[in-house]
Amino acid sequence: xxxxxxxxxERLGSKHEIVRVKNGFARNFLIPQGYAIAAxxxxxxxxxxxxxxxxxxxxxxxxxxxxxxxxIAGITLxxxxxxxxxxxxxxxxxxxxxxxxxxxxxxxxxxxxxSILEEPIRDLGSYKAxxxxxxxxxxxxxxEVVAE
Length: 148
Description:
The protein is of the alpha+beta class. Helices cover about 35% and strands about 35% of the residues. The chain has two domains: about 1-60, Ribosomal Protein L9, domain 1; about 70-145, Ribosomal protein L9, C-terminal domain (Ribosomal Protein L9, domain 2), CATH 3.10.430. The protein is elongated, with a radius of gyration of 20 Å. The protein starts with a strand and ends with a strand.
């Protein structure tokens, strides 16, 4: 069944994208949850017109994301954590703490867009994370977990 996504759905597609899914997934989950609509001929025309109008806005958003990506790629974040004598931290570092570290540096990054490459982080040291600023712009950021 072809559907039109009303918002971004992880591992499926982005807003206004037409994707093919199984009938049950569309009828039982995506459409009732408000994530998608059926891709009828009239809905396809409406989406095509909407995409045509938003194309210049999308180009600007991509350019803005690339500018932020250039600024972010050069910094190394420091995240403080309570640690024992052996270098093990109490608890683990997650994307919420990374988002807070970005806000201290002056960047507003939503925590859902951050994915840590080596989870769970329970030791002091240097690690990497991916930040998805736009569907076309993904930046790899390095960060250090240091003892407080």
